[in-house]
Amino acid sequence: MNRFSEIKSLVDELEVDMEKFYSKNNKTAGTRARKLLQDLKKLAQEVRIDIQEKKKD
């Protein structure tokens, strides 16, 4: 469940930067948002692999 907390934390951070990018046209926030999305993708893939391994056991 620790990874779930990490995912929630990333999504919370992402929400702030997405708001700044879309409403205030802050380009730096867009860069941070893209990085956070990449981190989220990586973490989600790790969780998917972990779940698949546990299903096999």
Q: What features would you describe in this structure?
A:
It comes from Natronogracilivirga saccharolytica. This protein is an all-alpha fold and 57 residues long. The protein has one domain. Helices cover 93% and strands 0% of the residues. It has two helices and no strands. The protein starts with a helix and ends with a helix. The relative contact order is 0.15.
Layout: helices, strands, pairs:
Layout: H1 2-24, H2 27-56
Give the count of helical stretches.
2
Major sheet characteristics: none
Beginning-to-end CA distance, first to last residue: 19 Å
Strand-and-helix sequence, N→C? HH
What would the keywords be for this entry?
2 helices, mainly alpha, 57 residues
Question: What is this structure, in a nutshell?
Answer:
With 57 residues, the protein is mostly helical. The chain has helices spanning 2-24, 27-56.
